[in-house]
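#structure-requests
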Amino acid sequence: MKKNDNLTIIPIGGLEQIGANCTMIGSGNEWIIVDLGITFYDKLGIEVLTPDITFITEQQKDIKGIFVTHAHEDHIGAIHHLWQSIKCPVYLTEFPAEVLKQKLSEMRWKDDVPINVVNRRERIKVGSFEIEFVALSHSVLGACGLYIKNPHGTVFHTGDWKIDETPLLGDTVDVERLIEIGNEGVDCLLCDSTNMVTASNIGSEATVREALERVIAKYEHKRVTVTCFSSNLARIETIFYIARQLKRRVAIIGRSMYKMLDAVAETSYYTPKFRENVNSILSDEEAMSMPADKVLLICTGSQGEARSALYKLAKGENKVVKLGDDDVVIFSSKVIPGNEIGIRDLQNMLLRQGVEIVTVDTETDIHVSGHASRDMVKKMYELLHPKTLMPVHGDARMLYAQQEFAKTCGISEILVAESGDVVCYSNGELQKVDHRDMVFNAVDGGDVIPLNSVPLRDRSLMSCHGHVSVSFVISGDELIDEPEVSIHGINANKKMLNRVNSGVYQIVRNEVAKGRDPEIMKREIAYSVKKLITKFFNKKPLVAVHIHQCS
């Protein structure tokens, strides 16, 4: 991209969908990246997608750094998959830094990544940019907004945030610094849009503690399991607190929560009380040897994830911990859009085992969102009074809802962008000047490949239409014996298979007789076989042709 004398903002991901958050901000020939996250997927054997970083790699020598707002997967989870293609320093606060180190620990090049741990209010100078980390509240430790200054303009990127005066564990919003930044002047605000569709108030972690204690106390004769996000350490600390109040002992089921506990142990958030809680955790065997009413279990799986601890419990696959009539499971979470079917299936499995379930549908205060309500967003506008607004983090409904809400708050210069838009800030205005088509990358085994790549297109085709393999031997322009035909993923009885074999034999014999180049022969046979299968089965399979030549 040619040198730009304005301030340029390019959302690489995170708009039009939930997840894969990544934004490039540039000036001159210099660029910084805000966040590099994943989104989840459940097709073709792919579980994780990353942003399309083609544009980033094109500017690779001019990338000054990746600046991470917080440690959630949709903001940090793609760095260890993609860093080798970018190779720049990473800047983040202490807890996200520990989470990233865990992700990098299995990479042979882990020591090559320059991880820079930044304090809140610390200002980092890279090229013509100055970036400051400003403390905000969220459902994970160490969340910060980024105040980005450049000779061509200033940007405040909120990341994910809310206002919580009593977060119990973690940071409150640095209102004093936000007021100062507002007085200095914010040219463009990039603001989280997650909760803009709903106008409901967002409570505090303190209210969740009260509600959970009240609900758990009702089940004094049952073993209670609370499922929540592993990254929500304030919620986990709350469960420890409730266990002490109700004279229960805590066991944690599953590895992901232990990883988060390992990460926090290396930070200033690891207070003596937190250490005491961790040291008191029961093993699975100890928990199952105790009376049900003396135990409180914590596990992941609130979103119905197939690999989660709760999912394995629901299927009876945990070798030690078994659930039944003496159990109640509390879902201390809300349903993330897209996970409805998985959560429903998980809850049905639990119910069939005799487990009682409690959700936010009946006990509304057992979870609180980590994202800002409309009132909180309005407060952010009032603190920063930005000249322009670009809604981020959300699908189209959320982005446009923030646009309409911002108008009622007196902000007139608003631009709703899509991932891939090239947006310039100049003279108090935001303007789309270009667009780059973005295609998600899929993490496929140890590889990262475009979602529209040939292997995944073939896999998609096979999953819908099946696969046909044709193999035969030729000598010169003569066919040696009949071809072998294998059909997979297509419902064919013996009679139909005989008709297919006869038709394929005719196709191969006619093509071999033409004496053409083997590669041309393969292509023509594959085309004709696909037509044949379509005629018989109304399917368009992937066809593979194998020619063996003998002298």
